[in-house]
Amino acid sequence: MRADIEIWNKPGNPLAEVTQTWVACTLVHAIPGRVRFRVPRLARDRPYADRLEQAMASQPGVIQVRVNLTAASIAIHYQTQGMSDERMRSQLVKVIQQTGQLQQSPGRESNPVIPELPATEPESHDIILPAIATLLAILGGPLGLPIPRTLMGGSVAWAALPVAKRAIASIVAERRLNIDCLDLMAIALSSLRGNLLTPALVMTLHEVGDTIRDRTARSSAARTADLMDTIGRFAWVERHGEKQQIPATDVEIGETVIVYPGEQIPVDGIVLQGTATIDRQKLTGESMPIVAEKGTQVYASTLLRSGELYIQAERVGAATRAAASLELVRKAPVHDTRMENYAANIADRAVLPAGIWAALVWALTRDPGRAAAILTLDFVTGIRVSVPTSFMAALTHATRHGILIRSGRALEQLAEVDTVVFDKTGTLTQGNLSVVRITTASEAISEEEVLELAAAAEQRISHPVAEAIVAEAQNRGVRLLSRGEWHYEVGLGIQAEIEGRRVLVGSDRFLRQSGVTVDCLTDQERRCDRGLDCEQSDCALNVNCSLIYVACEGKFQGVIEYADPLRRETPTVIQRLQSEYHIQVQMLTGDERPRALAVAEKLGIPACHTHAEAFPEQKAALVRELHESGKTVAFVGDGLNDSVALAYADLSVSFANGSDVARETADVVLMENNLSGLLDAIAIAKETQHIIQQNTTLVVGPNLAALVLASTFGLHPLAATVVHNGSAIAAGLNGLRPLMHRDPPRSASEKTEPNRN
User: Fold this and answer.
1) DSSP string spanning 433-462?
2) How far apart are CA 615 and CA 268, in angstroms?
């Protein structure tokens, strides 16, 4: 069972104490015999990574350890005998914590011992000192309690020390004035005048804003997954006349690899012998399996559904197409996934003018209070607090509606998107074949009887069409007859004995080869069999229709129509993106062009915006091309084949039930696996953009008026602080408005047409 991004330090978890106190540790993936943890320390502490790898390898029952420094993860394979999975995982977590307390000793094997005093990892922002300074200033100031002035001043100085360090570092290392320089000047002037409450309160508000900002950040270390999780880990090869199972990375070019039903192909190569059906959806996005035979090119990470293949290895390990796709993901440009710090950008431009103006006013008036007031009215604090608050509220609001938006930057990009590129299979469509209609050859036989024969013959066959037929029989409550002798021909069909009768289920060619006439098909059925669009009213969501034929005792009984149906919400989503948000929609798929065009036509996507037969690197190339043309591109996909395009898009969207790589790469995850969530996410993003514009007005207006007053008639620094912080609080409260909404914000057309449904 997969526990995706399951945080171990949850209340009630026996490991919570360990995780909270020692090394940060997250369970990413767990199945019997294998577990993968995310340990952020791995990415920044190479000695710890080396010690941990050695320590894990020395644990009883551990078979293999793989450390991925880029993804900050460690994958462990272990024996399942003798210890439960839960107990083994608990032991491995202890090793992660214990190793963090050790120092590497030359020539010594890592043998972790539980330390007595575990270390803690420091927080990036600390609001404790400013909060204490503010409390002391309030108690000793407005409340008049006998707090020693030296204690209050010392607390303010101690709280201001980080600000001073950052300001000095900016001047010395970067040779520029930043927002910390402005803060430090205001703190110093106010403190020299004996006003300790103002600087303490300002520092507290700044730290609150910074803390909120950082807690909405997304770590870029999780943008890629372990390569060997995606392609086959082991391979069967022929060596010295014997079949041996070896690690897939140990296969040599030119060797013969044997792949059996249900296994992933571990290498790229050419089929030497055998015939099999291969599901390539994971790599290319094709909804229909292909038939591979001698001379067919096959690729790692694709699944052998049925048959057996002997493959001559041409590319192995990191050289395979699947591995190359993941390498492209790893090398994709890493955007700053924190929300854009508008305040810092504004401050960088405002620091020097504000300092000069304050100095000029001080020189003319000889009043340091006016100068401190001008430095306090910096337009920045309100934005530093309100912008992160707005983003936090919007992200929380989105989560309540089943939309995981990983960062403030992703929310910003959602509001700016003008082009959405959709993968087809599993994104616009359901990604699974299903029976959409059954047509009988005559009135003498019912649909259920045709389905009964087909399901009996196809039971326990590892093929998407067979699975769809059996699933339909179960949904309709059709009994599953016992099957006698049977013979399956890859790419054609199956012949089986069902209750003493000879039943054929397969292609029209298969039935004709067996002497069965199927000439009674209607024109509509022939259209579907050629993969054209189905126009029947009861088949409105179905495209790429195909047929499978059923015969019994040499007589044609009927035809079963199957397809990969569109998601029910897909037509509405595409129509609203185009008409309401004026977003250009494009479709990108690994499927054949006729199938792709059939889907595009039904959804109203122009043929020029439909791209077919695309491998992952070609998908990424298209996304890059659109981006370079000046468009803000969102890519929506769910599979490994989409991960590269997801990584290169301005904004990436996937589903909770998508592949591990796609889900980790995506900026937005639709947790309810419903494409309508994309519309809700865009609406939330645009509302947030509007709120931020409002907040900017709320902050700039009062501060500008107070600045004019302070420069002309004078303004007490405390009054300036009230205006300054009051506007920040008002903007912050306004930023919390999304939390009050029960439903996602409506678009303009929804507001004007509330009863259109």
Assistant:
1) -EEEEEEESSTTS-HHHHHHHHHHHHTT--
2) 14
Return d(Cα 256, Cα 236) in angstroms, integer: 8
Instruction: Please say whether the dihedral angle defined by the alpha carbons of residues 387, 390, 391 and 393, taken in this order, is positive or negative.
Output: positive
| Each residue's pLDDT tens digit, 87-115 | 788 788 888 888 876 544 333 333 333 33
Round to whole Å and give the CA distance between 343 and 177: 14
Instruction: Give the per-residue pLDDT at 113.
Output: 34
Describe the crossing of helices 197-215 and 179-192 by its angle, rounded to 10 degrees: 160
* DSSP string of 718-753, one letter each residue: HHHHHHHHHHHHHHHHHHTGGGG-SSPPPPHHHHH-
Residue whose pair of structure tokens reads 């204490």 in the numeric block? 132
CA dist 502 and 510 (Å) reads 14
**What is the average per-residue pLDDT within 81-85?**
71
Query: Is 547 within 8 Å of 560 (Cβ atoms)?
Result: yes
Residue 548 identity: I
Mean pLDDT of 254-266: 87
What per-residue confidence (pLDDT) applies to 365?
A: 72
324 Ramachandran zone, left/alpha/beta (phi>0; psi -120 to 50): alpha
Following DSSP, what letter does each residue of 290-332 receive, concatenated? EEE-TT-EE-TT-EEEEE-EEEEEEE-GGGSHHHHHHHHHHHS
Comparing CA positions, the residue from 14, 322, 378 lying closest to residue 202 is 378
* E strands present in 579-662: 584-588, 610-611, 633-636, 651-655
- Gyration radius (Cα) of the chain, Å: 32
Distance of CA 626 to the CA centre of its chain: 21
Q: How far apart are CA 673 and CA 87, in angstroms?
A: 33
What's the Cα-to-Cα distance from 681 to each of 95, 249, 600, 678, rounded to whole Å? Answer: 41, 41, 24, 5
Entry pTM: 0.57
Tokens (6 digits) for 744: 């996602």
Sorted by sequence, the CB contacts under 8 Å of residue 157 that are 6+ apart come out as 191
State how far the Cα of 430 lies from the Cα of 185, in Å rounded to an integer: 60
DSSP assignment string, 65-100: EEEETTTTEEEEEE--SSS-HHHHHHHHHHHHHHHT
Indicate if the pLDDT at residue 164 is higher than 60. yes
With both helix axes pointing from N to C terminus, report the angle between 197-215 and 717-735 in degrees, rounded to the nearest 10.
20
CA dihedral over 576, 578, 583, 589, signed as positive or negative: positive
- CA-wise closest residue to 25 among 9, 2, 46: 9
> Please, what is the Cα angle at 639 between 634 and 640, to 5 degrees?
105
- Give pLDDT, residue 330: 53
Q: Give the chain's end-to-end CA distance (angstroms, integer).
A: 40
**pLDDT given for residue 618 in this prediction:** 82
Are the C-beta atoms of 629 and 364 separated by less than 8 Å? no
**Residue 64, exposed/middle/buried by CB under 10 A (0-12, 13-18, 19+)?**
middle
Query: What mean pLDDT do residues 236-240 have?
Result: 85
Digit-coded pLDDT (tens) for 3-61: 333 333 333 333 333 333 357 777 766 777 788 888 888 877 778 888 888 888 888 88
Comparison of pLDDT for 677 and 173, the residue scoring more:
677
Distance from C-alpha of 428 to C-alpha of 422, rounded to nearest angstrom = 7
Token reading at 162: 């980080």
DSSP string computed for 230-270: HS-SEEEEEETTEEEEEEGGGPPTT-EEEE-TTPBP-SEEE
**Residue 517 — pLDDT band, cuts 50, 70, 90?**
confident
Cα–Cα dist 731/695, whole Å? 5
Q: And the tokens for 511?
A: 């039935």
Which positions ≥6 away from 197 have C-beta within 8 Å? 134, 137, 138, 141, 142, 718, 721
β-pair partners for 585: 420
Kindly state the tokens that stand for 54.
């050695």
Q: Is the pLDDT of residue 549 over 90?
A: yes
